[in-house]
Design brief:
Blueprint (H helix, E strand, L loop, with lengths): L7 H4 L5 E4 L3 H12 L4 E4 L7 H4 L12 H8 L10 H18 L4 H15 L9 H7 L3
Parallel strand pairs: 1-2
């Protein structure tokens, strides 16, 4: 039963979902969830990624445009104030294991986990997760 203050998804009894990261996969998931009537909250470091979704619903933009990060990556600099490759690798591992238990296809998260494992094996686990950019550029 809707009291008029709930979002349409909540009124339909659909559980709210938060999507962290609005790269191609995150945007697609958030858009699908919105179309299915779920109340969706998003978080992303760059504002522009949420623009496409704002046409589906009013999603607040939370962070800067990402140009500074892009410039740093292109210069081979990896800011240390973001998550480390080791921490993000642990997160990826958790997603893979949880997906396995839930019977969800693990090919994509396993591929992401493999990149973090490669960074850690190369001795770069304490660096910012953006070190993956260097490894991918090098063909890794």
């Amino acid at each position: 039963m809707s009291d008029g203050n709930q979002s349409p998804g909540t009124a339909l009894g659909r559980p709210p979902v938060t999507v962290i990261g609005l790269g191609p996969m995150g945007r697609a998931m958030a858009a699908s969830l919105l179309r299915a009537g779920h109340p969706v909250t998003v978080w992303n470091r760059t504002v522009g990624c949420a623009d496409e979704l704002q046409s589906l619903t009013a999603i607040p933009s939370m962070i800067g445009d990402g140009l500074d990060l892009a410039r740093s990556l292109e210069a081979g600099e990896h800011p240390g104030h973001l998550s480390t490759a080791r921490m993000m690798g642990a997160t990826a591992n958790h997603i893979v294991r949880t997906s396995e238990k839930a019977g969800v296809d693990t090919r994509l998260p396993a591929a992401v986990e493999a990149h973090y494992d490669q960074a850690i094996a190369a001795g770069r686990g304490t660096e910012n997760w953006t070190v993956l950019y260097e490894l991918l550029k090098a063909g890794g």
